[in-house]
Amino acid sequence: MRFGIVVNEGPYTHQASDSAYRFAVAALEKGHEIFRVFFYHDGVNNGTRYTVPPQDDRNLQKLWSELAEKHGLDLVVCIAAAQRRGILDANEAKRQGKDGDNIAPGFRISGLGQLIEAGIQADRLVTFGD
Amino acid sequence: MSDENRKKFLYINRKAPYGTIYALESLEVVLIGAAFEQDVSLAFIDDGVYQLMANQDTAAVGMKNFSKTYRALGDYEVRKLYVEKESLAERGLTAENLMPIVYEDEDDDYAEKPSLIFVDRAEMAALIRSQDVILSF
Description:
The complex is a heterodimer of chains A (130) and B (137).
Chain A: E1 2-7, H1 16-29, E2 33-39, H2 60-71, E3 75-78, H3 79-85, H4 90-95, E4 107-110, H5 113-121, E5 124-128
Chain B: E1 8-13, H1 22-33, E2 39-44, H2 68-71, E3 81-84, H3 85-90, E4 102-105, E5 111-114, E6 116-119, H4 121-129, E7 133-136
Parallel strand pairs in B: 1-2, 1-7, 2-3, 3-6
Antiparallel strand pairs in B: 4-5
């Protein structure tokens, strides 16, 4: 089956991103395809490489980045939600006159059309978080 | 786009308009999604019915009043806004408390027709079951 995944909460405050990650790992292990993971609302906060959780805790951003690299996952952060919350790639930082970017490896910033396309292309669109 | 390539998208709105960002960011998805020519419906359940209240005034909370956007949805071919009757009644509201939201029917000499469809909880459940893609906000 081809899944689309939506993550609507940031890391740590809610379990949503952990659950989405575990779902993605399990789906891939079972041989399913993941068309795209779309990060919306506070979910965009999963895509900053500046998080520094305690060393004895999981690092969700790194887990997502490693999973993306291993399986070629498409991790998309919503641009409108990201701009509100200070998540920028190099192009956006330049365009907005900001002095740095923070997008994590394996993530890319794009529009809400990517969410609609995931709904159209996936057999099931699974949402994590409110 | 032919009907067999269209999916039924339902956007479920469950939260009041200004206490959280979900209502605003839901509308942003609906507006972008309109360009994809899918079969789009919106549902308003629980506190989500407050999103449709007439005469919204956000001056005191210092937030952008985006309620006019709902009235523009008809221009985006978004014409089916389902409102749960029980959610209204539980909050002491009636249809008269809501904004008049209409669309122009091009098959009927562009007559203005109501976009709000009032359904009971069982009908809402059936509507949800009939969808291909559900985004809940």
